[in-house]
Write a structure and sequence with these properties.
Elements: E1 2-7, E2 10-13, E3 18-26, E4 33-39, E5 46-51, E6 58-60, E7 68-73, E8 78-83, E9 92-99, E10 112-113, E11 117-122
Parallel strand pairs: 2-11
Antiparallel strand pairs: 1-3, 3-8, 4-5, 4-9, 5-6, 7-8, 9-10, 9-11
């Protein structure tokens, strides 16, 4: 079992930045690939970014490529999502997720989820 707790969300103006954190506890965090998803009101939860177990490989949705960066700090059991040049369309609840299979881009491929953190970008 893995428990995930996100933090770092908030209200920011368009063009601003936020860094989300996700702290993992429970079974060995280093065995899991990690991902970030987001869900806006009335929309499906969508893939944002993912990182491999080792941290050597990262993947991004086209909508965030070049603006967001995913990283992980294994000693701290933490994965981060640095979000720059934020747009109103980035407004959503952001979720951290973990899976033991490796990098996947669909939500059903993840085994554990955090409770989410709200990000609101004003225009």
């Amino acid at each position: 079992q893995v428990q995930l707790v996100e933090s770092g969300g908030g209200l920011v103006q368009a063009g601003g930045s936020l860094r989300l954190s996700c702290v993992a506890s429970g079974r060995d965090y280093r065995n899991y690939a990690m991902g970030w998803f987001r869900q806006a009101p009335g929309k499906e939860r969508e893939f944002v970014a993912a990182i491999s177990r080792s941290g050597d490989s990262t993947y991004y949705a086209d909508s965030v490529k070049g603006r967001f960066t995913i990283s992980r700090d294994s000693p701290k059991s933490t994965v981060y999502l640095q979000m720059n040049s934020l747009k109103p369309d980035d407004t959503a609840v952001y979720y951290c997720a973990a899976n033991f299979r490796g990098i996947v881009f669909y939500k059903s491929g993840y085994d554990y989820w955090g409770q989410g953190t709200q990000v609101t970008v004003s225009s």
